[in-house]
């Protein structure tokens, strides 16, 4: 293959000059609709599998309810948001919660080392709200244009159909922001014991908007009342010998016997500005917001109390999208969130069909009235106007009309040059991964080192050296123990130059310095 053939292009044959960044208004501004290379890439990716989900194929779910406290921490919730689902104390909102693994196919084992999906559909009085998150509070990448590449690298080899460690780390070695997530996933936190003892998180940053049109940044978290339990690789392997669906069985049996799992919903809140005092951008979903600075504030309780009556009709056909928000909850400029908002709903239209929202499991329980008609598998018309002949708006002939606007709507000031940007605040790519390593208990560190060591032994030397270089910059002990386990020369790894076109870790290219005890340890049972 000559050099010209090696150039990455899109399906139209256009050379791709930047495959790393969405087009946005300034470094932190919103993405723009004319992101054609991104849209082409994501919509093709959404259609790569039929009929099961491309990701999150293996899953189970249950019905339940959410009850707001009417407060966020000690303050009235209306101070931050006008969303009724969060402000009306004591009202029980029906929910459907789907748990899943990410990479494996529909019949893959639930003991897999993999993030877990935690997707909730709230059937609120103002329409559906979908909160589509994971168990871990961070992710591998911070720009959605990289999502297809990431999943391709983590999925089985297109030739051998085997998941290969070298493909995973070949991708990761070029993305230092992934080190934080890798540290979580390769530790026991990468294999939750079951779904009832698992956290949930929005991962992405949203905004809460109040009646005055004022907004704050927020992240959502769900803390299990039963505590958190995880498995080592050995424990998972033992379970997998006897049951590849142990977590589904555990959830179904617990609800069936009346042992209803419960989580406390919390939010972290931050003022809506860049926060230059932080080492990271709060819109970067590869980073956690330090809980000592931005505490988890209780918002309400979520309980699961009913199993599905038909697995296919409910669990398999359940469709979630990050763009499904209610008034009082809004988008931030988080580039992963904005990309997911296109991809998730586009996937559902392809996988389930254009009328997937007419299915009972996806349909809102509040009144629905649109001017949308027809399409494959349409089986009713949700026309709420007095004149069924009018399927457009506006009209003087008794058709549908717009809802009243809020007294004070939220308006975000946006200013910047249109272009493709990567964040310049990268110091914490190494810092938070190192902090996490140091807050793990000894047995968690030992399991983490053993898992990554086993992986790196399957990789070529250049990947081994670069990954040890990365981990040494996170924490010297982390890198040293991996070098010893893999059997490579640590000094040879440390001598590697920084990645091309990537900022060197730390201000001067050396390993960042830390203050002990910076990070608060994760909750445990």
Structural notes for this entry:
- One of its GO terms (biological process) is response to hydrogen peroxide.
- This is Catalase.
- Keywords: Heme, Hydrogen peroxide, Iron, Metal-binding, Oxidoreductase, Peroxidase.
- InterPro entries: Catalase, Catalase_AS, Catalase_clade1/3, Catalase_core, Catalase_immune_responsive, Catalase_sf.
- The chain is of the alpha+beta class.
- It has 3 domains: 36-358, Catalase HpII,  Chain A, domain 1 (Beta Barrel), CATH 2.40.180.10; 369-402, no CATH class; 428-494, no CATH class.
- It has 14 helices and 14 strands.
- The chain has helices at 36-46, 84-87, 147-154, 165-172, 179-185, 233-240, 246-256, 311-316, 335-351, 428-439, 442-456, 461-474, 476-486, 490-494; strands spanning 23-25, 59-68, 71-72, 75-76, 92-101, 116-124, 127-134, 200-201, 206-209, 215-224, 262-271, 297-306, 329-331, 418-420.
- Strands 2, 5, 6, 7, 8, 9, 10, 11, 12 and 13 form a 10-stranded antiparallel sheet that branches. The protein has a two-stranded antiparallel sheet with strand order 1-14.
- Helix 12 packs antiparallel against helix 13.
- The longest helix is centred in the middle third of the chain and has 17 residues, at 335-351.
- Residues 507-525 have low confidence and may be disordered.
């Amino acid at each position: 293959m000559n050099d010209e053939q090696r150039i990455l292009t899109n399906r139209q044959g256009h050379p791709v000059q930047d495959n790393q960044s969405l087009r946005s208004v300034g470094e932190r501004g919103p993405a723009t609709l004319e992101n054609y290379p991104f849209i082409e890439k994501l919509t093709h990716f959404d259609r790569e599998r039929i009929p099961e989900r491309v990701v999150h194929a293996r899953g189970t779910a249950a019905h339940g309810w959410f009850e707001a406290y009417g407060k966020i921490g000690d303050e009235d919730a209306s101070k931050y948001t006008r969303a009724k689902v969060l402000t009306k104390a004591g009202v029980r909102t029906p929910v459907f919660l789907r748990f899943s693994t990410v990479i494996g196919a529909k019949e893959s084992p639930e003991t897999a080392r993999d993030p877990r999906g935690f997707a909730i559909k709230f059937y609120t009085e103002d329409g559906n709200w979908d909160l589509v998150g994971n168990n871990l509070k961070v992710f591998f990448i911070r720009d959605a244009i990289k999502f297809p590449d990431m999943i391709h690298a983590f999925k089985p080899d297109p030739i051998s159909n085997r998941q290969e460690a070298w493909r995973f780390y070949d991708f990761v070695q070029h993305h230092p922001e992934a080190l934080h997530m890798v540290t979580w996933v390769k530790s026991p936190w990468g294999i939750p014991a079951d779904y009832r003892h698992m956290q949930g998180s929005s991962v992405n940053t949203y905004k809460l908007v109040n009646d005055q049109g004022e907004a704050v940044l927020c992240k959502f978290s769900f803390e299990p009342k039963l505590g958190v339990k995880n498995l080592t690789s050995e424990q998972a392997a033992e379970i997998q010998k006897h049951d590849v669906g142990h977590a589904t069985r555990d959830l179904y049996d617990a609800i069936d016997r009346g042992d209803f799992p419960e989580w406390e919903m919390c939010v972290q809140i931050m003022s809506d500005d860049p926060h230059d005092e932080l080492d990271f951008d709060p819109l970067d979903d590869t980073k956690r917001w330090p809980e000592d600075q931005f505490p988890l504030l209780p918002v309400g309780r979520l309980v699961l109390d009913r199993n599905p009556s038909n697995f296919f009709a409910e669990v398999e056909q359940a469709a979630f999208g990050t763009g499904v928000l209610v008034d009082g909850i809004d988008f931030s400029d988080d580039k992963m969130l904005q990309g997911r908002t296109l991809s998730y709903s586009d996937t559902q239209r392809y996988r389930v069909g254009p009328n997937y929202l007419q299915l009972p499991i996806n349909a809102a329980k509040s009144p629905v009235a649109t001017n949308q008609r027809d399409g494959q598998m349409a089986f009713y018309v949700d026309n709420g106007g007095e004149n069924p002949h009018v399927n457009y708006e506006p009209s003087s002939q008794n058709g549908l009309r717009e809802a009243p606007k809020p007294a004070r709507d939220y308006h975000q000031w946006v200013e910047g040059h249109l272009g493709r940007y990567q964040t310049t605040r990268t110091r914490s790519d190494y810092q938070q991964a190192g902090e996490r390593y140091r807050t793990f208990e000894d047995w968690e560190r030992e399991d983490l080192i053993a898992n990554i060591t086993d992986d790196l032994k399957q990789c070529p030397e250049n990947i081994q050296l670069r990954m040890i270089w990365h981990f040494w910059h996170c924490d010297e002990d982390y890198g040293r123990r991996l070098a010893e386990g893999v059997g490579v020369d640590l000094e040879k790894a440390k001598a590697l130059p920084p990645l091309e076109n990537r900022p060197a870790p730390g201000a001067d290219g050396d390993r960042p310095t830390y203050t002990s005890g910076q990070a608060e340890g994760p909750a445990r049972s």
